[in-house]
Structures are given as structure tokens and as C-alpha cells.
Amino acid sequence: MDQYGPVRDHSNRGLPPFYRGLPPFYRGLPPFYRDMASELDIFVGNTTLIDEEVYQLWLDGYSVAEAVSLRLQGGVLERSGTSVSVLQSDTRDHFRTFQMLERLLHAPTRLLQQLLFQIPPPRLAVLVQRWGWGGIGG
């Protein structure tokens, strides 16, 4: 004890072996959450991925199920080495992204100025051209 109160020991001494090496905020979590936190992988990126083939299927008015079927017929599983469930999820995610982009595709200058979707300029040009504007700024 010093003049300001008890001296706190912030080292790992005195902690059970399970707690040693864990950041302080983990120490109060039940074991289930600690285990789950140690096995969770997260990828964070800021570039919006656009598959031009899926974009064209969306523009042509296909549903997600129809687009998945057409992609399967086109041999995408053989080219990518993925599963049907991953293909369905990927197609659904792309369609959702396109639906969010749709309001911006009506005004290409707004699409260029927005910050939510980080899309490389060459890909933006393809999106706008296929939408029917003929080019950015059209």
C-alpha cells in the first residue's frame, strides 16, 4: 500500500494458467466466449468485388436461383473449384450489392462521388456502360 491506496499487481502472477496471456477484457468472459473468440477469423476489405458475369445475369433480370443454375451450366464449379453452396452465397451477395448500387447507377456522377462502395475506376466504367449510359458521365 502506498499513499494513494493499495498497489495493484497488473502482472499475470497469481492468475490461473488459463488466464495467463489473455488480454484483460477476455478474463471476465465465460469460457464459451473465450473459446469462440479464439477461433473466429475475420476478413475486412474495402474493395467491392464485382463479377461481371453475375452483373450481366442481374441486368438480364434473372433471379438468384436462375443465375446460380446458369452459372452451374457454364462450368463455374470446375473453373473455381468451389461448392454449390458457396456459389449460391456468392451469387446472392452479388445480387444484394447490385441492388444497393442500382440507385447510384441511375446517376453515374453520384456513383463516382460516393464513398460506400470502393470500386476501381475500370470496373466502374464497365458497370455504367452495361447499365446503358455508354460511359461515365453520360
From TrEMBL:
**InterPro entries noted in UniProt:** FIBP
GO cellular component terms attached to this protein's record: nucleus
Report which superkingdom the organism of origin falls in: Eukaryota
Q: Name one GO biological process term.
A: platelet aggregation
What GO molecular function annotations does the UniProt record carry, in alphabetical order?
Answer: fibroblast growth factor binding
Q: What is this protein called?
A: Uncharacterized protein
Which source organism does the UniProt entry give?
Coturnix japonica
